[in-house]
Amino acid sequence: MKLLLGTILTVALLVIGILIIKTYKETHKLARIVRKVLLVGLIVVLFNIISLYTHYAKVCLLAYCGYFIASAWMLYYLLQFSIEYIGHRFEDHINKTGMILLLIADSVSVAINYFRPYQFTLNPVTVMNESYYELDATIWFIVHYGIILMLVTFCLISLFYRSYTAPVFYRRKYLTIAVIMVILVILNVFTITSAIDVSVIGYVIEGIGIYYCVFVYTPQKLLSKTLYHVSQDMSVGVFVMDIEGNILYINKYAKPLLSEENPLVNKKDITLETWCRNQYLNRLENFTEEHTFYCKDTEIVLKIQLQRMVDVKSHLQGGYFVIQDRTEEINKLKKERYQAHHDPLTDLYNKAYFCEKARSYINRHLEEKLLMICTDIKDFKMINDFLGPKSGDTVLINFANMIKEQIPQALIYGRLGNDIFAILMKKEDFDESFFIREEQDALLQGTEKTVSFPIISYTGVYEITEHALPIFVMCDRARMAMSTIKGDYHKRIAYYDDNLRASILHEQELISNLSTAIAEEQLQMYLQPQMDADGNLLGSEALIRWIHPEKGPIMPGDFIPVFEKNGLISDVDRYIWEKACTLLKKWKDEGREDLYISVNISPRDFYFLNIFQIFTELIEKYDISPKNIKLEITETAIVMDFNRQMDLITRLRQTGFVVEMDDFGSGYSSLNMLKDIHVDILKIDMAFLKKANDEERSRKILKMVIALSKQLGMPVITEGIENAEQVQFLTEMGCEMFQGYYFAKPMDVATFEAQYLK
To answer: What is the 3-state secondary structure (H, E, C) of 579-616?
Structure first.
């Protein structure tokens, strides 16, 4: 019996030692508590083995004392484990300091028993011809035993409570530990004083059970259940294969993909399952690919991922496929791509995709003679207004169908916008009369015969000679040719010719020379004085002149529209702003801070430049006052983006800049404009009167605008003054600032300074 029990305890000692070593691989808090339980359990078993085999009473008494002390501490750590295991903090439920002091007192009390036995003594007995020492407990031993039972009771309460409140899956692990502990208590009650104390086996089983529940059973079962539920809930098909390619597991989304009743097959009539098995057995690498399969006549696009699982020696252990049905997504992408490339009304290419396709074709066929053809419908807005938008759409659809069906020679065609269509075709295939006839037939099909005005289309043709030109430029050239015959009912097709080319070359020359003109200061700032009624100088407006070294003066009307069209006007404006600030700095140093310079801000500047940042940096750079540089903004620019421009104007005025609204009366002027706008000065062009049929009526309107502006706190400056009579009646109206040839023409800076500052 002693040999059997000793062998069991020795094996238990080795098992606990191995488990202790394994706990060092775990890093979480619970692992540290389990390690303490096992370490103290190891001591319990060790002392029990000593008490079992020793022949010396004193050694056995010492082993029993150590056994009881270690048992109490093991139960303490077991209690700590129980509370932490159910998800609570030990300190929140147990007075840790008080409990440790109690156990220390108990340990000291038991240790004293070795020197002066008062809790228990040992009596030698013989059982089955083997000698043992039997425990003879006194009334004082009940104190130690009560502490033991208290610890056990607390452990059981926490574990049974948690098993009652936990989900079914987790309930098993709490009950397992609790049941082992109950068995331990029962064994301990009946064998605590016997010669053969088998309750120590309960401690061993408890320690092993704890380790198993914490590190083996729960993680594996939880992982298994979690992986199962995750794979079942995934919106992709998953199936697992063994090393022979047999399917071990398949989730619900993969089942219809591998159905034998409606199998998915590829173009080679190989089923999806067979294809996957072949890939699994014959390909050594993992992959993620898209393949097309068919179920009867339905095309299905699958994203297939193979993940092979190998050991450290690269031997196959198994693998799994993840299959995602991307058919709906692919079809949606195709639809979105088609919609992104095609005009929704006519189903032709839209402008962007037409340009892309045309560019691609031209680049691949540089040797061919190609035409870029643009057409539009005369007075298409009248069709919409007269016949209604539905008829207008019908006209456009019929026109598009004509291009697709009646002009098969067209290489690429598209709708550029509104009623503008573009066609790329070979020059040899272009038949002018056929083109006109088919276009007219298409227009007549979309309108009623009772229409009182003729519905015709115009066509512009550009023969592509400069293949590197952007496609939209080629279209512009075709449309430019078309614009030359607008309003002509006899001529329906026009070609881009040398005159148009010369005009474009002139524009390109201006554009290419701009950077040189700025660098060499061919662009010069001219100043036109701004006066009061008596001819006293108030300030000036900065204007631009291009003095070309070879061609001489180039008038602003020749280059300003060109630069405004392509956005280069911003470079010109910044150049003039810098010149104006440089001159203001010079005047400041000469003591003339009373003068200002007004500079123009073109509408395009608002989109290409950070106006506020540029002007604040300029006044800081040149150390000038913002009130000395007035900013002229056209009412057209304000109307184009009212809220944004008003926010900018507010910031500029708050910084100290004087903001003028230029050319009031030439655009979208209204009382609303005067009501909502917040500028410092209103600038009116005298052309306001010249354009009117009834000049007297216009004068009354002008007088009202000036009066209203003054009431709103906005002084008025009038430009374009040509005679004294204009000065007189404008003065009578309340205007106090004037600009025009009557006072002075624009002049270079040197002339201005010589005439007005010296």
So the answer is: HHHHHHHHHHHCCCCCCEEEEEECCCHHHHCCHHHHHH
From CA 192, how far away is CA 21, in angstroms rounded?
30
Tokens of 244: 């022979």
Sign of CA dihedral 168, 173, 176, 180: negative
d(CA 751, CA 758): 10
How far is it, in rounded angstroms, from Cα 127 to Cα 191?
A: 14
Task: State the total domains in the chain.
Answer: 4
Other beta carbons within 10 angstroms of residue 646's beta carbon come to: 15
pLDDT of residue 474: 93
Q: Looking at residue 601, which CATH number applies to its domain?
A: 3.20.20.450
CB 659, CB 649: distance < 8 Å: yes
Q: Which residue intervals of 494-623 are DSSP H helices?
A: 498-519, 556-566, 569-589, 605-608, 611-622
State residue 163's pLDDT score.
67
- % pLDDT > 70, the chain: 83
SS3 216: helix
Tell me the chain's radius of gyration from C-alpha atoms: 49
CA 272 to chain centre: 37
- Residue type for position 283: R
Q: What is the CATH number of the domain that holds 453?
A: 3.30.70.270
Question: What pTM, to 2 d.p., does this model score?
Answer: 0.46
Percentage of the chain beyond pLDDT 90 is 26
Domain range for 65 is 2-225
Q: Report the alpha-carbon distance of residue 431 to residue 440 in Å, rounded.
A: 14
CA dihedral 748, 749, 755, 756 (to 10 degrees): 130
pLDDT band at 485 (very low <50, low <70, confident <90, very high): confident
Residues 271 and 140 in one domain: no
Q: Mean pLDDT, to the nearest integer, of 195-221?
A: 59
Give the bridge partners for 84, in sequence order: none
Say how many Å lie between the first and final Cα of the chain, rounded. 131
Same domain, 187 and 266: no
Q: Which of 624, 629, 551 is nearest to 597 (CA)?
A: 629
Q: Find out whether 742 and 722 touch, Cβ atoms under 8 Å.
A: yes
- Looking at the DSSP bridge assignments, the partners of residue 648 are none
What's at 476, amino acid-wise? D
d(CA 167, CA 179): 18
- 86/296 Cα distance (integer angstroms): 56
pLDDT digits (tens, 9 = 90+) for 528-561: 999 998 889 999 999 999 999 988 999 888 899 8
* Residue that is last in its domain, among 225, 260, 285: 225
- Summary mean pLDDT of the chain: 82
Summarize the confidence of residues 241-254 as an average pLDDT: 81
Closest CA to 568 of 615, 517, 631, 531: 517
CA nearest neighbour of 72 among 19, 133, 150: 150
pLDDT tens digits for 320-368? 889 888 888 888 888 888 888 889 999 999 999 999 999 999 999 999 9
Give CA torsion, residues 257, 261, 262, 265, to 10 deg.
Answer: 80
Domain assignment present for 38: yes
Same domain as 683, residue 563: yes
Residue 325, CA distances (Å) to 261, 280, 295, 330, 382 in order: 19, 20, 13, 9, 51
In this structure, are 191 and 111 located in the same domain? yes
**540 vs 435, residue with greater confidence:** 540
CA distances from 356 to 467, 526, 714 (A): 14, 45, 51
Contact 541, 598 (CB under 8 A): yes
Give the range among 252-266, 487-501, 644-658 with minimum mean pLDDT: 487-501
Q: How far apart are CA 466 and CA 362, in angstroms?
A: 10
Confidence grade of residue 667 (pLDDT, cut at 50, 70, 90): low
